[in-house]
């Protein structure tokens, strides 16, 4: 049997597996099965904790529910940090991901702040398919147009909108996710600026669809909004599942503060 923890950060939910002792290699089909909300446990992402031999407390592998791998997952990073801190009693945790080394601070029960590192603003780092201005992409579909883009270790595009009421996210989201301007696909954020310190965001996630929250998406949105002169360097980002406090610090790093919760523990049959 394969024990797992079911965790979530503002409703963005994860199946967390511990492979620090026994290595785990899950085929994309197995990931899709576990993530299936009817035939499996159900989750937006599957997170595998692995040992790290370069000074971090652990390595975190992030797999979307479609089986694709991502370099970053902000909400999962808070959850894994809380889990590791619970084990060790530490206040600070270092987690390595494909995108780099992240440092997290436990601020209280179920409250974690992660230094997500600097955003990547060049077209080749997002990545985009050509030398476009990442502040204004020549992309429009239906009621949305003119997004900004950046990477937080994973690709994000942010469309700024005035009203969610008639926004067909389930229709335009997957089309934009797979637009050829994004050679590695992209997470698509739809952001309403409510003030210079408050943003309402919904995200169609690459490889997972519309989620209740997206941590790296909230970071990318604050960065893109500030670059456009729409917010300050700190804002509350309100999503369907909850709020995150995002700060683009003077040192260029993006700090993401928010909840990390465990829903339940379970066991998977050892057939994977
Ligand atoms: N779908 C994302 C990974 C999960 C990001 C999100 N759940 C977060 O909290 O950052 C991608 O493929 O880049």
Give a structural overview.
It is a single chain. The chain has four helices and 19 strands. With 272 residues, it is α+β, with helices and mostly antiparallel strands. It starts with a strand and ends with a strand. The radius of gyration is 18 Å and the shape is globular. A hairpin with a 3-residue loop joins strand 14 and strand 15. The chain binds 2,6-diaminopimelic acid. 2,6-diaminopimelic acid binds next to strand 4, helix 2 and helix 4.
Index terms:
4 helices, Diaminopimelate Epimerase, Chain A, domain 1, 272 residues, two-stranded antiparallel ribbon, alpha+beta, binds 2,6-diaminopimelic acid, single chain, 2 domains
Number of alpha- plus pi-helical segments: 4
Bound small molecules, by name, code or SMILES, are:
2,6-diaminopimelic acid
Under CATH, the topology of the largest domain can be stated as Diaminopimelate Epimerase, Chain A, domain 1
Determine the strand fraction and express it as a percent band. 35-45%
Keywords: Amino-acid biosynthesis, Cytoplasm, Isomerase, Lysine biosynthesis
Subunit structure: Homodimer.
Family: Belongs to the diaminopimelate epimerase family.
EC number: 5.1.1.7
How would you summarize this macromolecular structure in one to three sentences?
This protein is α+β, with helices and mostly antiparallel strands and 272 residues long.
Helices and strands in order, then pairings?
Layout: E1 2-9, E2 12-18, H1 28-35, E3 45-50, E4 58-64, E5 69-70, H2 74-88, E6 92-97, E7 100-108, E8 111-115, E9 140-141, E10 144-145, E11 148-151, E12 155-160, H3 169-177, E13 187-195, E14 198-205, E15 209-211, H4 215-227, E16 234-239, E17 242-248, E18 254-259, E19 261-268
The protein binds 2,6-diaminopimelic acid.
The site of 2,6-diaminopimelic acid (API) has 21 residues, from strand 4, helix 2 and helix 4.
């Amino acid at each position: 049997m394969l024990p797992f923890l079911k965790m979530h950060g503002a409703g963005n939910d994860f199946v967390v597996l511990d492979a620090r002792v026994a290595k785990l290699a899950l085929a994309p089909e197995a990931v899709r099965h576990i993530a299936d909300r009817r035939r499996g446990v159900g989750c937006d992402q599957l997170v595998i904790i692995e040992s790290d031999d370069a000074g971090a407390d652990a390595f975190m592998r992030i797999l979307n529910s479609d089986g694709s791998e991502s370099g970053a997952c902000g909400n999962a990073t808070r959850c894994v940090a809380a889990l590791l801190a619970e084990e060790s009693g530490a206040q600070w945790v270092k987690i390595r991901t494909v995108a780099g080394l992240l440092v997290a601070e436990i601020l209280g029960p179920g409250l974690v702040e992660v230094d997500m590192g600097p955003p990547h603003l060049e077209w080749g780092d997002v990545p985009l398919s050509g030398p476009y201005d990442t502040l204004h992409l020549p992309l429009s579909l239906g009621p949305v147009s003119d997004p900004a883009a950046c990477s937080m270790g994973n690709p994000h595009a942010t469309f700024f909108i005035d009203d969610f009421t008639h926004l067909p996210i389930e229709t335009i989201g997957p089309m934009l996710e797979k637009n050829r301007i994004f050679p590695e696909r992209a997470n698509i954020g739809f952001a309403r600026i409510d003030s210079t310190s408050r943003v309402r965001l919904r995200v169609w996630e690459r490889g997972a669809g519309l989620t209740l929250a997206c941590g790296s998406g909230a970071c990318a949105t604050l960065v893109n909004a500030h670059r456009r002169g729409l917010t300050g360097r700190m804002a509350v980002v309100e999503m369907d599942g909850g709020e995150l406090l995002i700060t683009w610090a003077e040192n260029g790093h993006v700090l993401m503060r928010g909840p990390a919760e465990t829903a339940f523990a379970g066991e998977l049959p050892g057939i994977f």
